[in-house]
Design a protein that fits this description.
Length: 264
């Protein structure tokens, strides 16, 4: 085991599990770009079909996003569907909205599929992924200690693998577990349990790091040793409610270290 050093003390761990979006990579950089392209195409087609413009007040609630005056996504609701939901959840929400606006369910599914293709193509071309501050140093420290790492994400496994490759950090992780590999996604314990099974460690010996309370609840449901909430740039008061089930809340990886266990 190694010692994970936090502002509130140390905890012996045999492995560390990371959420991906908002934990390894900057959420708005990737999913803000994707959401803007998706919603823009969605609104464009709806208008082309004579269904009128989507009410501006409605748009942020579709995915759980915050927008500036120009409509650009500037932040996200950590308890919202874009942050915590699966891709199928997002497609169902938008298909339902198209249906409410007057399309048949079949047309709604076709519309959402087309919007996904457009948004995904933009990501492939631009690859708007940026690591969180301090991440590289922390991953290098973990690698230096030989501690196994894994990713547990609400994204699909193939997409997660791709994003990690784009960031240049795929080699740090022994396992990548997407929501498509388990019966139940977050906040249920399935992904932690599968990651631990593949790593050959008990859930009670791992720390889970994430940026939503869904990550924290997943960790608690699995019996993880430590649930660490990564608050990032959110205000000082916000993490207390947004990450209500976290054992520890930190602003960045600069507050975390990994060291050899003295009893090792």
């Amino acid at each position: 085991m190694s010692e994970l050093i936090t502002p509130q003390g140390s905890c012996p761990v045999s492995a560390i599990l990371f959420d991906k979006d908002g934990t390894l990579l900057q959420f708005v950089s990737l999913w803000g770009s994707w959401g803007e392209r998706f919603l823009g195409k969605f609104a464009e087609i709806m208008e082309q079909k004579g269904l009128g413009e989507l009410p501006k007040a409605l748009i942020p609630s579709l995915l759980g996003t915050f927008h500036d005056a120009q409509g650009n996504i500037t932040d996200y609701d950590r308890n919202g569907p874009l942050a915590m939901g699966t891709m199928d959840d997002l497609y169902a929400i938008l298909s339902w909205q198209a249906y409410l606006q007057g399309l048949s369910w079949a047309e709604s599914l076709e519309l959402v599929h087309l919007c996904r293709q457009v948004a995904d193509a933009m990501l492939e071309q631009q690859r708007p992924v940026l690591p969180l501050p301090g991440l590289q140093r922390f991953l290098d420290d973990c690698a230096g200690q030989g501690i196994p790492l894994a990713v547990v994400t609400a994204d699909e496994t193939a997409a997660a693998e791709k994003h990690l490759q784009w960031l240049g950090i795929r080699q740090y992780f022994a396992e990548v577990i997407g929501t498509d590999l388990v019966e139940r996604g977050k906040p249920f314990p399935d992904m932690v349990q599968l990651a631990c099974e593949r790593l050959g460690v008990a859930p009670s010996q791992v720390a889970v790091i994430g940026d939503t309370n869904g990550d924290m609840r997943m960790a608690k449901a699995a019996g993880a040793a430590l649930a660490i909430g990564l608050a990032g740039t959110h205000s000082d008061s916000a993490p207390l409610s947004i990450l209500a089930d976290a054992d520890i809340i930190v602003q960045s990886y600069d507050e975390l270290r990994i060291e050899a266990n003295a009893d090792k």
